[in-house]
Write a structure and sequence with these properties.
The complex is a heterotetramer of chains A (431), B (344), C (379) and D (272). Chain A has 19 helices and 10 strands. By secondary structure, chain A is α/β, with parallel strands linked by helices. Chain A folds into 2 domains: 39-154 and 314-383, 3-Layer(aba) Sandwich (D-Maltodextrin-Binding Protein, domain 2); 155-312 and 388-428, 3-Layer(aba) Sandwich (D-Maltodextrin-Binding Protein, domain 2), CATH 3.40.190.10. In chain A, strands 1, 2, 3, 6, 7, 8, 9 and 10 form an 8-stranded mixed beta sheet that branches. In chain A, strands 4-5 form a two-stranded antiparallel ribbon. By secondary structure, chain D is mainly alpha-helical. In chain D, 62% of the residues are buried. The chains are: A alpha/beta (431), B mainly alpha (344), C alpha+beta (379), D mainly alpha (272).
Chain lengths: 431, 344, 379, 272
């Protein structure tokens, strides 16, 4: 009886104690975490980093007290919904992942908070020197002002099948001329073996891939005056080469491929070479989705002879919605700083985001152990070019016009010159 | 709109008449014989106006919510859209907005992409719906007899129509792909069709899309026609059979004329939807290759929801509405005419 | 129980002749009133106006002396039996019968009791749990009756309630409805296009045509003293014969001359006076003809064909002498009449008459109806 | 065997063949959802596979499937209920009205149904923003209801016109109020018409993605929008799509299978 009695008393005291302790603790938490009670909504492209961002949310809450909700959307949906959000001042999203090519539109319409002053203020905290200048410039700035802050940079690299190259006694192509020749050599439709694969699908897919090749073949979308020069001789030639590659060295279905289809065909062993964003590279050695584990190599993207040795850089910045109130803006900036900080960004990449952008990451042994292609990326960034796709406000329309032109050429419905002339006429109307 | 305002006016004028009557009769009320049932007396007092006026108000009251709702939620935004279509108006470049008059409409009818889109949309609708009507009628005739076997068949046949159109597009994209697609691979091996798959060639892509639409909607067509068949008067058909009409004669002379209302319903529903085709095209070809499978809705969605070119997108939308309305009117007229010719 | 009065009631539709035109009709408490006429004559419209299903354009409808033009059907407290029966397909027989009581808020036990009683009366007890779709035509008709009978309404309104039944069932139900009406003594308005139903069931019958009341009378009076050509032709089977004639003064007093056949009218008109020479139409019922035995002057006819009905023969006769006028009634039952008007006579079934036989017919002057040839009204 | 029996068998064989042709693509979609990723893309494509639920696991890791399903249910359910509440009375009213403008009015409703989504979407978006419903289920329900109730009105107009008015007249002489006659007699006897039009509405709302894509947010997103997202994603395989498609198609297919009897009945009266 007495033991029972004392036991219950003990329980009571313990209960009171815990309550008191938890009370003090939660008060302390509230003090420690400046963003308690804040909820940030992030609109994310459904690249690899999307899921990683969502997975990092609890960690961010632990660090700052703020809730992070990540809405992952496909490219078209993301563009449409975030633009609608900006235009309607609906404050649906606090943070938006901004494709490098949207920078012009963001800047012109003041969709996002100008982060320039904050970047300058927090330069030390951000460790800006550790981030490649090309990335800061093309993923974040437009006309010298920060419309977003880079968080996921991609390098355009050459992915190739070492085994096939070795078997044919070839080395990874050093320039575009070799690339074309090798692609043809390694094509054997009877064995379902193709030398090359790229995006052929109507829309952004074909436009972006072609712009990549175009740049490496010496073409340019804009002329020296900043106006479209789609039908320049260099562009017509490069489109002819692109068409030739599709006709002679690509899997027949490539005309319907977007990024996913292209990667899939490489992972399935259908194609020997492709230029691709570095972000897909880890997938080649994942046996659950890849049939070419251990047979692939990553090299610098080849550039045509006589063309300046620069490599494509792309990726995403985080923009802060200009419509939200100041407290939310501060919180959003806090998140950006937190995410790009050295330790978190390393973890971000370790979790599979594929978004390397700091010099320190290129030599980090832990990362290197997992991603052996980092030196290639480092080299790409050193000579990076983020402007081969013009980041002007009219970019979406130009991309659409180009996509249609290139896709028609690939489908055999038009000749390169005629298609680009027509595209040029359409593009001029936008200015 | 007109019907309702008409009813309102009717009710109002009726109102005045009733009031004078009511005054007249309240005087006679005092002289009522005792035998009058209380119920009648009570209702006299409760109702300030007569039953038939209340009947009109009642019907009006039933229709009004839907009408008001549609006006507010539908017609309001549409009217705004019609207004926008007169402007060169891009939400992303508000500074460049200017009154454009009919320029947007002129563009719709001169621009190569939109002309092709109009052509494709009509081709898609007319060929698709015609094929669906013929196949659907055939299936409906097969399913006519009402037994368990046919009911089961019908239930399964309806599955394509219930599948999300987005998924339908994905299914066929997956099946027809030249490299991994089951059908695409077979065709490639047999050397049939373009090398890159049926959807990758401008000469075949639209026909494939029509075929997909037929796959998806023929069963629904069959369902509506079957419903019409089941509503046919049995005695007429039996009389025709007794008169010794062959199956073909019965079909051409009896069934087809009597089925006109169902055919009309099926056509009007399908034409409306086919003309607004979007989902399946969006995921299979996205309008490509080039502009080969561009449709009006695809173009409108791209202009409106990707480029926020509201003026132009609204113009395309309005042209689409106009085309649908014209086709629907032609259908209505055609059916009336045939109906008059057959039924006198 | 109610008295129902139509006072100058009209129903107009835009762009067509009045469906009902200045109808004056007084239906007494407890009376069985039949409205009869060809289709489109306005009888159903009149009935529906009583029920409150049709709006009255002008005039006054009184139920128990109260102007009821603007009362809702519910407030009129009448029961109606529809031609299509209008049974609620989603309710069982019992629920169908109980419906009117339920919506009027009767107690549950009372409803059950009354439904049971009514079902017994109509021999529907074993079908109470069935849905209407599972009933035969006759059973449905009885359910429709039951729905009316279960309440004690001001009046029963019946709109061609028997027209969907076969002939035998119809005969049976005719007497049953009459019986039930007498039993309940509820004022009843019964609409039909069938003059047999009208004659056998109605205490009084209102004959309507083209929206106008032609004659309101007892069945016997309608038969004996039709007010105009329409009523004469509508009432009686086989229908009356019309012969064109002219009134003359003959030796034996006034007479009507029809072609070469002159028939003395006995004392019926006294002196003709101004009527002498008036164009008339003579209506002679088929059963009024007698076959003359030789000497007597009569109408010479030839039998075109003979229908042997057992007890009687129905003769279709061609008359070269007199001009037969087609009856102007458009009736579903009596077709082909207009094609070639023939005289019809009903004679004793024992006579041996075959087609082609030549006969002489006479008529009792008292059985002849005379109508003004221009107005069609009885003289 | 007599001619009639032979004919019957021929008809049935033909029907089965047609049904199989129509179902083959569906079967392929279903099968991809049970294939391991490595077997979906094989060259040459093959029929046999090792069944696995891997794709379903992957769907659940990418998407909040239950939340998507819930949104889809709420949006279609809400819109169908509202559409019936608005459309059935309106269709009844137009069918019973003696005004010559009634059928014109019915065609007006049909015309509303034809409106292409883009034409109304952006203005509607602004309105929803102004009244603060953006991102909620209500926004989608409201606009879907506009289209669906227009359709229901038109369909029920045709349906009620094929039903004799005597039923309601009988009810009113039996002592019903007008509302009583409508609710207790007209509505129950139009059951199959209502089920048929409800099915059409559910199919529309469930499958529509343009409106919800624009008008919903993370927590209110329905399945159709997620399908769109999945389609545009590089690392989501066909199998995962196939598995996700299960959730978006199976409920509707089941509904159609169970209710197709009403479909036929409803359409039977609706077309006359």
């Amino acid at each position: 009886m007495s033991t029972l009695h004392s036991a219950s008393r003990l329980t009571a005291i313990a209960a009171i104690g815990t309550t008191l302790v938890s009370l003090t603790f939660s008060a302390a938490w509230a003090q420690d975490k400046p963003l308690s009670g804040v909820t940030l909504t992030l609109a994310s492209q459904n690249d690899q980093f999307g899921a990683v961002l969502a997975n990092l949310a609890p960690k961010f809450k632990e660090a700052t007290g703020a809730e992070l909700k990540v809405e992952i959307m496909d490219y078209g949906q993301l563009l449409t919904k975030t633009t609608a959000d900006y235009l309607g001042d609906t404050k649906g999203y606090d943070l938006v992942t901004m494709d490098i090519v949207w920078a012009g539109a963001y800047s012109e319409n003041r969709y996002s908070v100008d982060l320039t002053d904050w970047v300058a203020r927090d330069a030390a905290e951000l460790e800006l020197d550790d981030i490649y200048p090309v990335i800061l410039e093309s993923l974040g700035q437009y006309n010298g002002r920060y419309v977003a802050f880079p968080f996921a940079a991609y390098a355009n690299v050459l992915a190739y099948r070492k085994d096939l190259f070795d078997a044919a006694g070839l080395k990874a192509p050093a320039d575009m001329e070799e690339f074309v020749a090798d692609a043809k050599k390694l094509t054997d439709p009877s064995k379902k073996q193709y030398g090359f694969v790229a995006n052929g699908q109507l829309g952004p897919a074909v436009a972006q891939d072609w712009m990549q090749y175009n740049s490496q073949l010496g073409g340019s979308i804009l002329g020296a005056d900043g106006k479209p020069a789609l039908n320049s001789e260099a562009n017509v030639n490069s489109l002819a080469v692109y068409k030739q590659l599709f006709a002679e060295a690509a899997p027949p279905g490539a005309i319907e491929y977007d990024w996913g289809g292209r990667e899939e065909s490489f992972r399935q062993g259908l194609a020997a070479m492709m230029q691709t964003w570095s972000v897909g590279a880890p997938g080649y050695s994942d046996p659950s989705i890849s049939k070419v584990v251990g047979k692939t190599g990553i090299a610098l993207a080849p550039v045509a002879k006589g063309v300046k040795q620069t490599y494509g850089v792309g990726g995403w910045g985080l923009a802060v919605n200009a419509d939200i109130d100041d407290k939310q803006k501060e919180a959003a900036w806090t998140f950006i700083k937190w995410l790009v900080s050295k330790p978190i960004h390393k973890e971000f990449n370790l979790m599979g985001a594929g978004s390397f952008m700091r010099r320190s990451q290129m030599t980090d042994p832990e990362l290197l152990a997992k991603f052996d292609f980092l030196p290639v990326i480092a080299e790409t960034y050193e000579h990076g070019n983020g402007e081969y796709r013009p980041r002007i406000p009219q970019y979406p329309e130009i991309q659409d016009i180009l996509g249609k032109a290139v896709n028609s050429v690939l489908a055999g419905a038009a000749e390169p010159k005629a298609a680009l002339d027509q595209a040029q006429a359409a593009a001029e109307k936008l200015f | 709109m007109t019907a309702l305002s008409d009813a309102c006016i009717l009710a109002a004028s009726e109102d005045a008449r009733i009031w004078t009557m009511a005054r007249k009769y309240t005087m006679t009320d005092t002289e009522l014989p005792v035998a009058v049932p209380r119920q009648i007396l009570r209702s006299r007092r409760d109702n300030s106006f007569g039953y038939f006026v209340r009947r009109r108000y009642f019907l009006l009251f039933l229709a009004l919510p839907a009408f008001v709702y549609v006006m507010i939620v539908g017609v309001g935004p549409l009217a705004r859209g019609a207004w926008y279509s007169l402007f060169d108006y891009n939400l992303q470049r508000p500074a460049r907005t200017r009154f454009a008059g009919l320029d947007n409409y002129i563009t719709v009818f001169t621009d190569q992409s939109s002309l092709l889109a109009i052509y494709n949309t009509f081709l898609f609708t007319i060929v698709g719906v015609t094929v669906q009507l013929i196949l659907g009628f055939g299936i409906a005739l097969l399913l006519w007899r009402d037994d368990r076997f046919n009911r089961t068949c019908l239930a399964f046949l309806l599955i394509p129509a219930t599948i999300t159109p987005l998924v339908v597009g994905l299914i066929f994209k997956g099946l027809l792909g030249a490299d991994y697609g089951m059908v695409g691979h077979l065709l490639a091996n047999a050397g049939i069709g373009p090398e890159g798959g049926l959807l990758s060639d401008g000469r075949t892509a639209l026909w494939v899309l029509i075929a997909i639409d037929c796959w998806e909607w023929t069963p629904l067509m069959a369902l509506i026609l079957l419903a019409g068949l089941k509503a046919l008067p049995v005695d007429v058909l039996e009389a025709a059979r007794a008169d010794g009409a062959t199956a073909t004669q019965r079909f051409a002379r009896i069934i087809l004329p009597l089925m006109l209302p169902s055919v009309f319903l099926a056509l009007i529903l399908r034409v409306m939807d086919a003309f607004r085709v979007f989902d399946t095209v969006f995921v299979t070809t996205g309008g490509g290759p080039g502009d080969a499978t561009q449709t009006l809705m695809l173009l409108a969605v791209k202009e409106g929801l990707s480029f926020f070119n509201i003026g132009y997108a609204s113009a395309i939308g309005n042209v689409t509405i106009a085309f649908i309305a014209i086709m629907a009117s032609i259908l209505v007229l055609a059916v009336r005419r045939t109906d008059v010719r057959i039924n006198g | 129980m109610a008295q129902i009065t139509f006072h100058d009631v009209s129903k107009l539709y835009e762009g067509s002749y009045p469906a009902v035109h200045n109808l004056n009709l007084d239906i007494r408490d407890g009376e069985f009133m039949v409205l009869v006429g060809p289709s489109g004559c306005g009888k159903s419209t009149a009935l529906r106006m009583v029920a409150g299903l049709e709006e009255i354009t002008s005039g006054e409808l009184r139920i128990n002396g109260v102007r009821s033009n603007d009362l809702s059907p519910r407030d009129r407290d009448i029961a109606m039996v529809f031609q299509s029966y209008a049974l609620y397909p989603h309710l069982t027989v019992a629920e169908n019968i109980a419906f009117g009581l339920r919506v009027r808020g009767f107690e549950r036990e009372e409803v059950t009791r009354k439904v049971k009683q009514t079902a017994e009366l109509l021999e529907l007890t074993e079908y109470l749990d069935r849905k209407p779709a599972k009933l035969s035509g006759g059973q449905r008709q009885r359910v429709a009756m039951g729905r009316a009978l279960v309440r004690s309404p001001n009046a029963f309104l019946m709109d061609e309630p028997l027209s969907n039944l076969d002939a035998r069932l119809r005969g049976q139900m005719r007497s049953e409805i009459s019986k039930l009406q007498r039993m309940t003594a509820v004022t009843t308005i019964y609409v039909t296009h069938d003059q047999v139903e009208a004659m056998t069931m109605g205490e009084r019958v209102a004959v309507m045509n083209k929206g106008t009341l032609q004659q309101l009378d007892t069945p016997r009076a309608l038969y004996d003293r039709p007010k105009n050509l329409f009523v004469a032709s509508f009432i009686g089977t086989p229908p009356v014969n019309f012969l064109r004639g002219v009134l003359i003064s003959a030796e034996g007093g006034p007479a009507v001359r029809m072609g070469s056949f002159t028939l003395g009218l006995g004392g019926r008109f006294g002196g003709l006076g101004p009527r002498d020479g008036q164009q008339v139409i003579a209506g002679i019922r088929p059963e009024a003809f007698r076959i003359a035995d030789g000497a007597v002057p009569g109408l010479n006819v030839a039998a075109a064909f003979v229908e042997d009905l057992g007890a009687t023969l129905l003769l279709h006769l061609d008359s070269p002498e007199a001009e037969v006028v087609p009856a102007s009634v458009v009736e579903d039952d009596v077709d082909l009449e207009a094609v070639r008007p023939r005289l019809r006579a009903v004679v004793d079934g024992s006579l041996k008459i075959t087609s082609g036989d030549r006969l002489v017919l006479t008529v009792d002057p008292a059985a002849i109806h005379l109508f003004d040839a221009s107005t069609g009204d009885a003289l | 065997m007599n001619a009639a029996a032979t004919q019957l068998i021929a008809r049935r064989v033909l029907l089965v063949a047609i049904t199989v042709v129509f179902l083959l693509p569906v079967a392929w979609l279903i099968s991809t959802a049970y294939k391991p990723s490595s077997q979906i893309f094989s060259i040459p494509p093959r029929l046999g596979f090792t069944p696995t639920l891997e794709q379903f696991r992957s769907v659940f890791s990418y998407f909040h499937v239950w939340s998507l399903l819930k949104s889809s249910l709420i949006i279609s359910g809400g819109s169908v209920i509202l559409s019936l509440l608005l459309g059935v009375p309106a269709g009844y009213s137009l069918a019973r009205s003696r005004s010559r403008l009634a059928s014109l009015c019915a065609y007006f409703f049909l015309a509303i149904r034809m409106v292409p989504a883009v034409a109304a979407l952006i203005p509607f978006y602004m309105v929803m923003r102004d009244i603060g419903l953006l991102g909620t289920w209500w926004a989608v329900i409201i606009i879907n209801t506009m289209l669906n109730c227009a359709f229901v009105t038109w369909m029920m107009f045709s349906y009620f016109r094929s039903l004799p008015p005597e039923l309601e007249e009988a009810a009113m002489t039996d002592g019903c109020t007008q509302m009583g006659a409508f609710l207790k007699v007209a509505v129950p006897s139009a059951r199959s018409g209502m089920i048929a039009s409800a099915l059409f509405c559910i199919m529309f709302s469930w499958n529509d993605f343009l409106y919800p894509m624009f008008l919903t947010r993370l927590d209110t997103k329905p399945l159709s929008v997620a399908l769109l997202t999945a389609y545009g994603t590089k690392d989501i395989t066909w199998g995962t799509l196939g598995a996700l498609a299960h959730f978006s198609t199976v409920p509707i297919v089941l509904m159609a299978l169970f209710l197709n009897r009403y479909f036929v009945q409803g359409a039977t009266n609706g077309v006359q």
